[in-house]
């Protein structure tokens, strides 16, 4: 068997994505949704490649993925990070925004390419924020929730015309998190910092 044979290319891509997602501490179900690998196979991949590794330990998160959306609008800092992720989802063609500012998923359901695009968006987000507060599972949750245009929506800032993530059921002053943080600093107020 040659690893370059076309009949093994699909299997190799699924395996590579599983490794990439495990490095981001994705839950088994999230990996399964994107790769189609069985739960048992995913656990074996983790046991083989990550359980006894040296250096920083990669944890296996258990239980369901987070479902709440309040974290994304908890304060301007979290809102800014969530807005960054949504922009990166759009740049990686996971989402698209129509002329009425509604968000639409570009994929009917997750697959290997979807998983790699999600990983790319998340890795870029980690590079853009000095101490990123949202882990991979929160990014997955945001991607699923924002595409429903239900609890989370995009709003447009009246000051700088930037789109940002907003709670659909909260009072919206149409001020993006970047402008809100700058306003708090100008007024001498100490902006609410992200916990360490």
Any key phrases for this structure?
mainly alpha; Flagellar transcriptional regulator FlhC; 2 domains; two-stranded antiparallel ribbon; 7 helices; globular
Structure, briefly:
The protein has helices spanning 6-23, 28-35, 39-49, 76-91, 112-128, 136-146, 177-186; strands at 95-97, 103-105, 152-156, 163-167.
Would you mind describing this structure in some detail?
This protein is 46% helix and 8% strand. With 196 residues, it is mostly helical. The chain has two domains: 1-64, no CATH class; 70-186, no CATH class. The chain is globular, with a radius of gyration of 19 Å. The model has no long low-confidence stretch (mean pLDDT 89). This is Flagellar transcriptional regulator FlhC.
Write the layout of secondary structure elements.
Layout: H1 6-23, H2 28-35, H3 39-49, H4 76-91, E1 95-97, E2 103-105, H5 112-128, H6 136-146, E3 152-156, E4 163-167, H7 177-186
Antiparallel strand pairs: 1-2, 3-4
Radius of gyration: 19 Å
Shape: globular
**Gap between N and C termini, in Å?**
50 Å
What class do helices, strands and sheet pairing give?
mainly alpha
Tell me the strand percentage band. Answer: 5-15%
Number of strands: 4
- Sheet with the most strands? 2 strands, antiparallel
């Amino acid at each position: 068997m040659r690893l370059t044979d076309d009949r093994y290319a699909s299997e190799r891509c699924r395996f590579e994505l599983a490794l990439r997602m495990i490095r981001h501490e994705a839950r088994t179900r999230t990996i399964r949704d994107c790769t189609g690998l069985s739960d048992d196979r995913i656990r074996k991949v983790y046991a083989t490649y990550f359980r006894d590794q040296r250096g920083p330990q990669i944890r296996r998160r258990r239980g369901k993925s987070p479902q709440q959306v309040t974290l994304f609008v908890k304060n301007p800092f979290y809102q800014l990070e969530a807005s960054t992720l949504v922009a990166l989802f759009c740049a990686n063609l996971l989402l698209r925004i129509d002329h009425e500012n509604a968000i639409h998923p570009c994929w009917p359901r997750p697959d290997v390419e979807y998983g790699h695009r999600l990983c790319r968006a998340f890795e870029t987000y980690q590079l853009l924020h000095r101490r990123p507060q949202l882990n991979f599972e929160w990014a997955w949750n945001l991607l699923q929730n924002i595409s429903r245009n239900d609890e989370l929506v995009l709003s447009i800032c009246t000051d700088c015309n930037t789109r940002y993530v907003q709670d659909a059921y909260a009072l919206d002053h149409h001020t993006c998190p970047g402008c809100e943080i700058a306003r708090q600093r100008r007024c001498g107020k100490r902006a609410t910092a992200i916990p360490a």
